[in-house]
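From the pipeline queue, job 12 of 40. The input is one protein chain; the requested action is below.

Action: predict structure.
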Amino acid sequence: MKHTLMLIALSGALIAPADADQHGDALVWLQKMAVAAQRLNYTGTFTYQSGGTSETSRITHLVDAGGEHEKLEVLDGSPREVLRNDDEVRCFLPEDKLVIVEKRGQLKAFPALLPTSVNSLSDYYLVRKGDVSRVAGFDSQLILLEPKDALRYGHHLWADVNSGLILRARMVNERGEIIEQFAFTQLQINGPIDREMLQSKFGKEGKNWRIHNARASQSLNAGNDWLFKSQLPGFVKRTGMKRKAVRESGTETTHFVFTDGLASISVFIEPLGDQNPEKATYSVGSINVYKRAASKYLLTILGEVPTATLIQLGDGMESRKK
C-alpha cells in the first residue's frame, strides 16, 4: 500500500511541472493576444452570432504617431458606424440623425476582448492551450478559459500563430453550449491602410444631425450613496459615473461597471418615478438582465454573465440614504 501511494505521489510530482509549464505558456499566449489587438494594423470582416441572430461588420484598425484609430461599420440591417480615436468614441446612427460621443471606458470589442494585463485572469479561470487549426485562412492557436466558479462563463479564443491577433472568440455556458461567437471571415494584418478608410461616410451630413455628448463624470466615488453588500469574487468596481439620458427630457442615471478583466457587469440606477415594477429577469441576445426596485430607485443589472450572478449583486445593493 505504501509503495502504491509513493508511486501516485511521484507521478503527481512528475506531472505538475508539465501542467504548470502549459498554464504559463497559455498565459503568454493571452498576453500576446491582448497586445496584438492594440498595436497591430488590420482590416477585415467578421460575423457575430448569438442565438438565432447574426450580424456582419467591417473593422479597420490603425496605430500611428497620433495614437490608436478604429472604424467599425455594421453591414447588416440599420446602418451604424463607430469611430474611435484612442478613448474617444463617436457612434453614428443615421436613421435617428444622431451622433453619440463618449469615452470607451471598460468597453471591450472584438478582437480587443482582453485586458491590458492578463495575469489576474488565472485567479478565476483555468487557462490552457487547445489545438492548432485554420481560421479565415490563418493557422490559429486555441486558448481555453474555463471558469473556476459559477459566476462567469467560459471563453474559447483562437489567435493567429504569427501575430497573436484573435481570429475567433466563443463564449460558452457550463454545458459547453455557445452563447455568442465572433469570427473573422476575411482579414488583412499589417497591410497598407488608407486613412480614408477610417472616415465616416456620414461625416459630411452632420448639419442636420443631433450630437449627444455622453461623456460622463467618471469617478469611483460617483454614486457613493449606494452600498454593495454582496461581493462577487474577482469582480472589481472599475467605473462609477453619472450619465444624462439621450432624450432631452431624460433624467440622470448612475452607472457602475464591475469587471474581472474579461466579463463585465453594468449597474444602472435611476429614479423610480411612477413605476412600480416587480423583480424581473430576461435576456437580450447574450446579455442577461435583472431589474428590481430599491427605495425610490429602479436598479437594472446586466452583463454577459449567468443570471444568478446578477441577482446576487443586485439583491445586495442598498441605498445609504434612508
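Job complete. Residues 121 and 261 are 7 Å apart (CA to CA).
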